[in-house]
Amino acid sequence: MNRIVISGPAALAEGNSLATGQVVQAAIFIEDGVITRVAPGLDPGADVVVSEGVIAPGFVELQINGAYGVDFTTDAGTIVEASARLPAGGVTAFVPTVITSPFDGYPRRLAEAREASREARGAEVLGLHLEGPYLSPRRPGAHDPSLLRAIDVDEILAWAEPDIVRIVTLAPELPGASAAIRALRARGILVSVGHSNASYEEAMAAFDAGIEWATHLYNAMSPLGQREPGLMGALLVSPVPVGLITDGVHSHPAMVKVAYRCKGTDGIAIVTDAMEAMGMAPGNYRLGDRSVIVDSSTARLVDGTLAGSILTMDAGVRNMVEFSGCTQVEALAMASATPARILGLARKGRIAAGCDADLAILDGTGRVAQSWARGERVYAGA
Questions:
Q1: Nearest to 254 by CA among 325, 185, 317, 188
Q2: Are 273 and 64 in contact, with CB atoms under 8 Å apart?
Q3: Helix count and strand count (H, E) for the chain
Q4: pTM > 0.85
Q5: Architecture field, domain 58-342
Q6: What is the pLDDT along the chain (382 residues), one digit of tens a residue?
Q7: Can 273 be counted among the known catalytic residues?
Q8: Contacts of 300 (CB under 8 A, 6+ apart)
Q9: Which of 160, 174, 205, 246 is the most core-located residue (most Cβ within 10 A)?
């Protein structure tokens, strides 16, 4: 039996310190990859003693297109490589994202992802996020408009295999969207609104139809107006949780603060929307079939359109604190407890008995010192 004790200042599960934004000394007992007990106070005899910083729940990433030189849309088999390296940013579970692609290539991507999820040994693969191809041609973002498709429920049911497809992003104002939402939800697949030009009324109707998340709030969606609130306004006033890219580029810091004040900790999942240049030097990269130019802070198509980010999750957490004024523990919850709840994962995103032993140990500056996935140390910084 694999047993280990990790002790130090910890952001524990809701019901104690997480609810009040505090960090408390605790000893976390782990057996065979599961947290069996959390005891108050420091245990100086623990296998791992953390003297500064915080022991946080491992981060759960819901939207990432690639990283460290690999692109999931081009080859989903590279998920294995990304799984090994994402724990450096505190990620212990993730939903790799495939953007709009030639339709005849989807079966191959799903097969590659299915095999990769079995082989991955670092951050756990939670299934695919298919962002497209059922998106609005008026809000394509970095997606190739020529590859967008009209919604066909029979077509969707032919590829929406719940053993590997976890999230589907679509534009709910498209004809046939309501039927598609119902069909996907019947298979246990989370449906997200994104790349959409929906009106406020269309958005609210889509929420009633079963939309349960929103892909990258503010980006590639109908804007907020004083007489037409659009999708953006509908999301800010509704209980539907949102993904938020906190790189300071996709959303101005003031708009991150607006989102925090409107949605709160339970309504925001920090995402990176990272592409293959994350963790790499500036240069020329790919996002699916698109050429992307990357500098020190942004990734853009040749026409200047943002094409994902180069943000890491731990940097996203630090930025959330700086931009919104929330506490560190609240930001940690937005990177762990909230995305886990959105996916219905009761055993992830919390430090509590019965949960998976997924931990991100941050140093005093909020950077990752160690990551543990299912009770195994998968990253140790220098």
A1: 325
A2: yes
A3: 11, 22
A4: yes
A5: Alpha-Beta Barrel (3.20)
A6: 689 999 999 998 654 445 456 799 999 999 999 999 999 999 999 999 999 999 999 999 999 999 999 999 999 999 999 999 999 999 999 999 999 999 999 999 999 999 999 999 999 999 999 999 999 999 999 999 999 999 999 999 888 899 999 999 999 999 999 999 999 999 999 999 999 999 999 999 999 999 999 999 999 999 999 999 999 999 999 999 999 999 999 999 999 999 999 999 999 999 999 999 999 999 999 999 999 999 999 999 999 999 999 999 999 999 999 999 999 999 999 999 999 999 999 999 999 999 999 999 999 999 999 999 999 999 998 6
A7: yes
A8: 292, 293, 294, 306, 307
A9: 246
Where do the structural domains in the chain lie, given as residue ranges? 3-56+348-380, 58-342
CA 148/CA 139 separation, integer angstroms: 11
Cβ burial of 343 (10 Å; 0-12, 13-18, 19+) is buried
Residues in the chain: 382
How far is the CA of 268 from the CAs of 118, 162, 196, 259, 336, in angstroms? 29, 24, 19, 8, 10
- Tokens representing residue 20 in the block: 């009040």
> CATH code for 3-56+348-380?
2.30.40.10
Torsion of CA 232, 326, 61, 313, to 10 degrees: 120
